[in-house]
Design a protein that fits this description.
Mean pLDDT: 93
Strand content: 15-25%
InterPro entries: Aminotransferase_I/II_large, Class-I_PLP-dep_aminotransf, PyrdxlP-dep_Trfase, PyrdxlP-dep_Trfase_major
Family: Belongs to the class-I pyridoxal-phosphate-dependent aminotransferase family.
CATH topology of the largest domain: Aspartate Aminotransferase, domain 2
Pfam families: Aminotran_1_2 (PF00155)
GO biological process, one term: alpha-amino acid metabolic process
Distance between the termini: 72 Å
Organism: Antrodiella citrinella
Strand order of the largest sheet: 3-10-9-8-7-4-5-6
């Protein structure tokens, strides 16, 4: 702790303004609050109603994992009795300690954020679980919020369900259009409260595939200080970056150099690089805000899945952090190859019929359908994708579902993560016919 830099951390009381009524009214679980005391040597605990593990029918568990340095080789893993005991039993709300410790070190390796610098990490049942808890902990019904657009449609209902006043912030190939956000903030009516959170996916955004530049990130951080909002940095594609330029630092990393520190909550996911079915994600952010998320967990589902955490840490502890990063590099190269196949087929079949910007991360292609011959007229991809493309035997998503307002757009999104090259070729050949069908229908 003595070698940690002195950061100008925002005080705990600063965050009271960001907590929702639900978060303020939630109380701690009296049992879980005392669970850490069970680790005291010599203490006999009669605290928690844990089932006796001798009654559990699972007695051993063995599996194999890839060697991160040679994917053709496998590492045999057999859980120790102690590991199995932890996996089958209740565990702390913020996560299994060994797993949490490993993730703290990962945040230091990947983002330069050391444990003890005024932030906290908690594990959840996927980052979506943690995002939901964050939104309900920080936003009241009717509150204004900034959401980048387009955005992942699975997150939009989190804000719509509690009837937020959503303000879309435009993005382009360089990330959030910070100059437009500044214009919105500087012209904000003095009688109306400004949004206190901004939601963004800065790497390989679903659906656009955009990765925010360093310049844009610094401008957004400056606006967060000037206009007092917290950044929800949702980053499931951080480890799926395959751009040719060096990867820009995260908001979580960059804020260490800001005049005050504590305006970023970062959401990470293991779904894209280890397993989507294990449902493990983790959030990192200011102590007060993270404790509000933990309190929601104790009220809602007590804890993240113990067995999933044990399975993952049994792999990660053998790989080490270098092995994990080697594995994620291989994953990113895999998706870069998938992107290249898809983009080659786009050029072959859809040149002149669609426009796109090459993604640098993630597993999606976002393209504009040229549905009219008038360049000044914005088309609507909904009918072309939902009707003509489906009738031609290809399924994709119209861009309107990625916009909180649901307004029409000429854009559409396709995922290239699962398709083999012949499927990509056939899908885009069919999409070409669908666009031509839509053009013909528009002329009638």
């Amino acid at each position: 702790m003595g070698d940690l830099p002195v950061l100008n951390l925002l005080p705990d009381e600063f965050y009271e303004q960001f907590l929702s009524e639900l978060a303020v009214n939630r109380t701690d679980d009296a049992i879980r609050e005392l669970m850490p005391l069970e680790n005291r040597p010599g203490l006999i605990s009669m605290l928690v109603g844990k089932p006796n593990s001798s009654s559990f029918p699972i007695t051993s568990l063995s599996f194999t994992a890839q060697d991160p340095n040679d994917a053709s080789k496998e590492i045999a893993i057999r859980l120790t009795p102690e590991e199995l005991e932890v996996g089958l039993q209740y565990s702390p709300t913020q996560g299994v300690p060994e797993f949490v410790d490993w993730l703290y070190k990962l945040q230091e390796v990947s983002h330069g954020r050391k444990r003890g610098e005024g932030w906290k990490l908690s594990v959840g049942n996927g980052s979506q679980d943690l995002l939901y808890k964050a939104v309900t902990s920080f936003v009241n019904p009717g509150d204004p919020v900034f959401l980048e657009a387009p955005m992942y449609p699975g997150v939009i209902p989190l804000f719509q369900t509690i009837r937020c006043n959503i303000y879309e912030v435009e993005t382009d190939a360089k990330g959030i259009c910070s100059h437009k956000l500044r214009a919105m903030l500087e012209s904000w009516p003095a009688s109306n409260p400004k949004p206190k959170i901004l939601y963004t996916v800065p790497y390989g955004c679903n659906p656009t595939g955009m990765t925010a530049t360093l310049e844009r990130r610094l401008e957004i951080l400056a606006l967060a200080r000037e206009h007092n909002f917290v950044i929800l940095e949702d980053d499931p594609y951080f480890y799926v970056y395959y751009g040719t330029a060096p990867r820009p630092p995260s908001y979580f990393s960059l804020e260490r150099e800001q005049p005050d520190v504590g305006r970023v909550i970062r959401f990470d996911s293991l779904s894209k690089v280890l397993s989507s079915g294990l449902r493990l994600g983790f959030a990192s952010g200011p102590l007060t805000l993270m404790r509000a998320i933990d309190r929601h967990s104790t009220n809602a589902n007590l804890q993240p899945n113990s067995m999933a955490q044990i399975l993952v840490i049994s792999v990660l502890s053998r790989w080490g952090h270098d092995g994990f990063l080697t594995h994620t590099q291989r994953v990113s190269e895999f998706y870069r190859a998938k992107r290249d196949v898809f983009e080659t087929a786009l050029r072959r079949h859809l040149t002149g019929l669609v426009e796109w910007v090459t993604p640098e991360s993630g597993m999606f292609m976002w393209f504009k359908l040229l549905l009219t011959e008038d360049d000044d007229e914005e088309g609507d991809s909904a009918a072309a994708i939902r009707t003509h493309a489906f009738e031609r035997g290809v399924l994709a998503l119209p861009g309107t579902v990625f916009l909180p307002s649901g307004r029409k757009t000429a854009y559409a999104r396709a995922s290239f993560s699962l398709l083999e090259p012949p499927q990509v070729d056939e899908a885009l050949r069919r999409l070409k016919d669908a666009i031509l069908d839509a053009r013909s229908a528009a002329k009638k």
